[in-house]
Amino acid sequence: xxxxxxxxxxxxxxxxxxxxxxxxxxxxxxxxxxxxxxxxxxxxxxxxxxxxxxxxxxxxxxxxxxxxxxxxxxxxxxxxxxxxxxxxxxxxxxxxxxxxxxxxxxxxxxxxxxxxxx
Length: 118
Description:
Largest sheet: 7 strands, mixed
Number of strands: 11
Distance between the termini: 40 Å
Order of helices and strands: EEEEEEEEEEE
Strand content: over 45%
Number of helices: 0
Structural class: mainly beta
Shape: globular
Radius of gyration: 13 Å
Helix content: under 10%
């Protein structure tokens, strides 16, 4: 059974930092691309960042470029999202997901809340 478990969310003031973690079990972590998404209240879920299985390619939403960094530790089956210079508009539930051979994100975590106060 594949499981993705996010952690590291919380309440932080604008300008602060948080690091989210997503631990994956039940599949060969190093064989899958990983992504982070977020959903703010009343809005659709949006892409935040992704890292290819090799770790050599990363992509970011324009809204987070230069502030967020995605990384992965294949030995720990974990993907991270370092979030710096946080803004109130970054407030959302953050989800990690894995992408398999279908090129679709097919497994998702339960989400972790990030709240940025002004």
